[in-house]
Design a protein that fits this description.
single chain, 527 residues, alpha/beta, Diaminopimelate Epimerase, Chain A, domain 1, globular
Length: 527
């Protein structure tokens, strides 16, 4: 049952998400609160003074791409030549691995960003080759930690940095700040913050505490940015200014697409473009990758949907040569559609299935898969998302064990969307409401946009819109009050005159100088 809400109650509810209130940049902890930060800084400064060869090793998602770009730009700014590598998802696999050691031979100091905390074997190979290693990462520690000169990761027990949920780019930014202090040089840390904001949003960090402060400051910097890549993206999106949603829904997928379809170094090249002409050309390339990604993903999603066994509590589907770069997104789509956790596997034709899983609801997908390790070749991830590989012949046993583990977990299917803050009447939809909502931006992970439910609503109109009729435009009425609504990506057909409940967020629609309020429809519940 949803409580009827008032504006005051809503404000209080949103305020309670921020236990420490709204922080600003002056509340950022010092770099030295990270374990090994000072040690790593001194080692890098020594490498610079002795003209040692430094190599940065990143990762192919947005956080890894951004972290790599930050380090590349910093060393360019202090005019010190370095090498950088982003492992290829298909050829190299994830992060610092045995596969990339041959490519970094001759390096004196290797620095990982957004990876490395689980690279036990690769760290040993670095040691054997006389490569000193500094690991910067933000992921959970495995029981065995790699041997390295310094490890900066806020999830280490001895680390005094007060916030546990920060991303790789934030740690890279902190490392740059620490190096700047030690080298006693003047550089503008805000120009780096704009890239950090992109990573925090893309890596789904909770938009609370310092994360909110960094995103807010970063977005302000982005909107004044002189960076050719950002100017090119603003041109392409025909926007005066970017907000958190533009980054999450448009910029992040573009930056991710290169690594999913071919190689993430294209995204680093784009972000680090030094003039607008290069930036435009590189953005076109990312757009091509993204178009290809969408088409590939759509095709595999359709095939995956046909295989779903609706009796299973955890959906597992597999197909021949499905593109490994998109199986994670497909898993998320199938999971959302069926409201169940889902694992999507690709058969490479050599007896091995590789893939990704995404959870749904309360299910700890990592936990229930972890107890199936005997059937798996490789496995990693966290509660909501996993990566795995297994032999073809183990698939049946793996599926059975997975269903058993889910049943043991006693997951209650919660039909109530936790993001719905309460019941709302159309008469309370006003600019005062949107003003209150704006106060608590940016919205995202950990601070979801408030959704409302209005009951007993009459559908006056429901027309298809969009190039292929893939969206709906509504006109709703409640007690004589009429509201416009839009629902994206739906092919549902609704009967005019029928009574429904509607779940939505409220949005200000700016059109030709006029501002109107409209409902962004999340779900129409037919009675």
């Amino acid at each position: 049952m949803h409580k009827k809400l008032t504006l005051t109650a809503l404000e209080l509810l949103l305020q309670n998400r921020f236990k420490e209130g709204f922080l600003s940049l002056k509340d950022l902890p010092q770099p030295s609160t990270f374990k090994d930060m000072d040690k790593a800084t001194k080692r890098i400064v020594k490498a610079i003074k002795n003209k040692e060869k430094i190599t940065i090793i990143g990762d192919y998602d947005v956080d890894g791409v951004t972290s790599t770009t930050l380090m590349k730009l910093f060393f360019e700014e202090i005019d010190y030549p370095i090498e950088w590598i982003i492992p290829n998802r298909f050829k190299d696999g994830y992060g610092l691995s045995a596969n990339i050691i041959p490519r970094i031979l001759g390096t004196d100091l290797a620095i990982t960003v957004d990876n490395g905390i689980s690279a036990v074997y690769a760290a040993k190979l670095c040691k054997d080759e006389g490569i000193e290693l500094i690991i910067t990462d933000h992921h959970l520690l495995a029981p065995e930690v790699p041997e390295a000169y310094a490890i900066i990761d806020q999830k280490q027990e001895e680390c005094t940095f007060p916030y546990e949920e920060v991303c790789g780019a934030q740690i890279a930014w902190y490392l740059i700040a620490s190096l700047k202090n030690d080298l006693e040089i003047k550089i503008n840390m805000m120009s780096y913050m704009e890239l950090v904001a992109i990573a925090i949003i893309a890596d789904m960090m909770p938009l609370q505490h310092i994360n909110r402060a960094m995103v807010e400051a970063g977005i302000q910097a982005l909107n004044k940015s002189k960076r050719p890549a950002i100017k090119a993206f603003l041109e392409h999106s025909q926007k005066e200014a970017l907000n958190a949603e533009d980054i999450g829904f448009f910029l992040a997928p573009l930056l991710n697409a290169a690594g999913r379809m071919e190689d993430a170094s294209f995204s680093v090249d784009f972000l680090a473009s030094t003039n607008i002409y290069d930036a435009r050309v590189r953005l076109e390339r990312l757009k091509d990758f993204n178009t290809l990604r969408k088409a590939t993903e759509q095709d595999i999603t359709q095939k995956a949907m046909l295989q779903v066994n609706t009796n299973d509590e955890v959906i597992v589907v597999a197909g021949e040569h499905w593109h490994e770069g998109v199986v994670g997104i497909v898993a998320a789509r199938v999971a959302r559609h069926h409201e169940k956790p889902c694992i999507v596997l690709s058969d490479n034709g050599e007896g091995i299935l590789k893939g990704s899983g995404r959870s749904f609801g309360e299910c700890d997908l990592f936990g229930i898969t972890d107890s199936c390790r005997s059937h798996l070749e490789k496995f990693g991830g966290h509660q909501a998302a996993i990566g795995l590989s297994l032999k073809n012949k183990s698939l049946k046993a793996f599926k059975m064990k997975l269903q058993e583990n889910f049943a043991k977990g006693d997951y209650i299917k919660d039909d109530v969307d936790p993001d719905i803050v309460g019941e709302w009447h159309f008469q309370n939809i006003s600019f005062d409401l949107t003003k209150t909502i704006k106060k608590f931006e940016p919205y995202g992970q950990g601070n979801p946009t408030p959704k409302f439910i209005s009951k007993n609503i009459e559908i006056l109109q429901a027309d298809a819109m969009g190039k292929e009729g893939e969206h709906l435009r509504f006109s709703f009425a409640q007690d004589g009050l009429v509201m416009a609504g839009v629902q994206f990506k739906t092919r549902e057909v609704y009967e005019v005159g029928s009574k429904v409940d509607v779940v939505y967020t409220v949005n200000e629609n700016h059109f030709r100088g006029k501002v109107t309020l409209q409902l962004m429809v999340d779900k129409v519940i037919v009675k």
